[in-house]
Amino acid sequence: MKYGVLILAAILGASSCGAPAQRSAEAPVIRPSEVADFRVLYGQNCSGCHGAGGEGALTVGIGTPAYLAIADDATVRGVIEQGRPGTPMAAFAQKAGGMLTDAQIEIIVHGIRTSWAKAGSPDKDEPSYRASQPGDAERGHKVFATVCAPCHGPDGRGARAIADTSYLALVSDQHLRTVMITGMPHLGMPDWRTHAKPLSDADVTDVVVWLAAQRQPLSTQLNHAGGSE
């Protein structure tokens, strides 16, 4: 019995002596606000919607050359900081209620640009990121019927119903414009250049205005669903 107690004590002593050495060998804990690796920050905050390589997944590919050719750093930074109110794109800046510091947002912006942007002059005919003039909804409907209807159906209510009121309630006019310019190659949607006739800035503006006119106020949608508050 005496020997058994001694052996047990020796085992416990050896275990307790080894514990501090094991703990000291563990990697130090990094606070979320101290993460400074682009791949980690992008992977944790952006890749779920925008794709692991910025190619697009559930939404616009913010790492595609077409997107980076029209969106400057200030634009990318602003979207990350403030999000898109009224859409699934949340604000990520701490000052706007998110989790990322200004330094981390800057790391993401710089990383997107240096990792995926292509060198070279932008196409002089490329539509601008933001509309430069008011659009014409009637003309936009005609452009849509020619360019977009083959995939989205007449009046945008086919299998890929881009004029569906539920979809339009989730996206901003700027999102619609961006998608028309950059396309969504991972979903088979061409960018502005790869239609039979490249889209002009006015074409994009007019189609967005027409689509926006199909968006119904939330109260109207509730009434159509059978009730309102």
* Helical proportion, percent range: 40-55%
The global form is: elongated
Report on the biggest sheet. none
How many β-strand runs? 0
Cα Rg? 26 Å
Mean pLDDT value = 85
* β-sheet strand percentage: under 5%
Order of helices and strands: HHHHHHHHHHH
User: What structural category do the secondary elements indicate?
Assistant: mainly alpha
Distance between the termini: 79 Å
Q: Number of DSSP helices? A: 11
Unreliable segments of 5+ consecutive residues: 218-229
Q: What brief labels describe this structure?
A:
mainly alpha; disordered C terminus; 0% strand; 229 residues
Q: Can you characterise this structure?
A:
It is a single chain. This protein has 229 residues and is an all-alpha fold. The protein contains eleven helices and no strands. The protein has helices at 2-25, 38-45, 47-50, 65-70, 73-82, 102-116, 137-152, 165-168, 173-182, 201-213, 218-225. The N and C termini lie far apart (79 Å).
Topology summary:
Layout (H helix, E strand, L loop, with lengths): L1 H24 L12 H8 L1 H4 L14 H6 L2 H10 L19 H15 L20 H16 L12 H4 L4 H10 L18 H13 L4 H8 L4
Helix pairs in contact: 2-6, 5-6, 7-10, 9-10
